[in-house]
Design a protein that fits this description.
single chain; nine-stranded antiparallel beta sheet; 7 helices
Amino acid sequence: MIKFIKNLHRGFIGGPDFSIPAERVVLLENKQLSITVPDNNMAVVPKAIDKHFPYNSQAWFKEHAQTYLQHEFVIIFTKNWLYLPVISVGTSSEYGMLSCQPRIKQTSKIDVTDLEALSHFVTQEYEDFHNGPNGINTEIRKGVKERLTKYPPPTSEERLKKEMDGWVEARGKTPLLPAKKQEFNERIWVFYQEFKNNTKISHTNFYCLPLSATSFLEIEFNYRVDRYDKYEKWSKHAEESERRIMESVSLTDIPEEQINLLN
């Protein structure tokens, strides 16, 4: 009864439950990654979690990486937490979901250990993709141009550009805010955000930490908002959970003699 009253007061049930912490430990070549994340609060298909990630190996990365838009990465693990109403009404009553996914990325375009270069790289890759051959902005501009030039009279270049820019701003992917640096456990991470649409509600937060000149650890927090009118109820809890998870992240060097034993 007390728990029910507490849930009524905060306006939701679900989200990460830190009362039973679960520490995840994996090996990143000569480093040990430790991160505390609660278990999923939803049914998921059990999946074996790899324990060793040779992040500097191009062959390993090529074999295991997957691609989504401009992102190419190897997943370490994924955790999902639903946020639900205290009293469910209907079958589709979810308020939303917070997901956490640590992963490995590689690039030869920059020196990843240069945080200024990494900060620019992560946002520029987004812009280059969405304005490139397969990007949604390119698709929008093409559609506007076809529509305005299909029939006479001719459309001026100035009007055409204005129309295309307006549609991209309304329906496309506008430039991201500059990435910034954040510190957790005496390590400096590069932080940036992507938004699903111009409502700026459903969004994804990314934290990037260099591992070598060509590799970095990225921790993604995805905020899937199913009911915009209820987001305020659970957003602070999700943001606090994100902060607690990031504060739990520990990356330590493994002595060479121990690495040989582990291999």
